[in-house]
Amino acid sequence: MREDKMTLLRTLWGTVSSTTPTPTPTPTPTPSAGFSAKVIVDSKWNGGYCNRVQVTNAGTSSGTWAISLPVTGTVNNAWNVTWSQSGSTLKASGVDFNRTLAAGATAEFGFCAAG
């Protein structure tokens, strides 16, 4: 660069370095788990029902699942899951053997409810 241009740049911007700054590395995005649930009606009778729920990890890495589902009535038992109910919402998460799902894997749990 010509000296007169360098002088002008120094005047306008202060000291100018001819070195290129080191770019800040862009972090590599972490793959994520993405869970979906499919509810299957196992049985239904006057005053109650039992459902199975298949939870699938559609993401690109393993992950620990927890889901919320709308339910009718009061859940009175469930299996292969840790659960709680608040109003018409069932919150469910995996237990020791099905808590973490690899990408593409599926876990299944079930529950019965009155109502």
Description:
The protein is mostly beta strands and 115 residues long. It has a domain at 35-114: Sandwich (Immunoglobulin-like), CATH 2.60.40. Helix content is 10%, strand content 48%. The protein has one helix spanning 3-13; strands spanning 35-45, 48-57, 63-64, 66-70, 74-79, 82-86, 89-93, 100-101, 106-114. Strand 6 and strand 7 form a beta hairpin. The model has no long low-confidence stretch (mean pLDDT 87).
Strand order of the largest sheet: 1-2-9-5
- Describe the biggest sheet? 4 strands, antiparallel
Beta fraction: over 45%
Look at the structure and give the mean pLDDT: 87
Sheet/helix structural class:
mainly beta
Total helix count?
A: 1
> What's the number of extended β-strand segments?
9
The CATH architecture term of the domain at 35-114 is: Sandwich
The percent of residues in helical segments reads under 10%
CATH class term of the domain at 35-114: Mainly Beta
The SSE order reads HEEEEEEEEE
**Distance separating the two termini:** 82 Å
Note the overall shape. Answer: rod-shaped
The CATH topology of the domain at 35-114 corresponds to Immunoglobulin-like
Low-pLDDT runs:
none
Give the radius of gyration.
28 Å
